[in-house]
Amino acid sequence: MFIAILLFIIAGLAEIGGGYLVWLWLKESKPLWYGIIGSIILIVYGIIPTLQSFPSFGRVYAAYGGVFILLALFWGWLVDKKTPDFYDWVGAAVCVIGVSIILCAPRN
User: Fold this and answer.
1) Ramachandran category for residue 39: left, alpha or beta (phi over 0 → left; psi -120 to 50 → alpha)
2) pLDDT tens per residue, range 32-73
3) What is the tens place of the pLDDT at every residue in 67-106?
4) Among 108, 74, 100, which residue's Cα sits nearest to residue 1?
């Protein structure tokens, strides 16, 4: 389970970081190389979830979605300096509970 969580975190950082660089290029007039590097990181992000050992694409991405939400809040807080409010944290907690159910539920 440690490797699965680590891969989710790496994928999330790649998706958010790559997307953030593209955002900076398009929305804040940063140089073109921001967009190029961001796009390359987003391609790498697309590969990372395939390293998961789970056999179901849908479950992997559903679980990843919850982790992504939590990482996005932390990114906004630490990088973008936008402090999450109470409802952001409650929503993220609900997502993490959902991820736990998806990943840890006993299945045949």
Assistant:
1) alpha
2) 999 999 999 999 999 998 888 877 888 888 888 888 899 999
3) 889 999 999 999 989 999 999 999 999 998 988 888 888 8
4) 100
CA dihedral for 2, 54, 95, 80, sign (positive or negative): positive
Q: Are 44 and 7 in contact (CB under 8 A)?
A: no
Domain range list for the chain: 2-104
Quote the pTM value: 0.81
Q: Report CA-CA distances (Å) from 11 to 31, 83, 90, 105.
A: 25, 23, 23, 23
CB 92 within 8 A of CB 75: no
Distances (CA, A) of 13 to 19, 33, 52, 75, 101: 10, 19, 16, 9, 23
- CA distances 45 to 84, 96, 106, Å, are 25, 21, 28
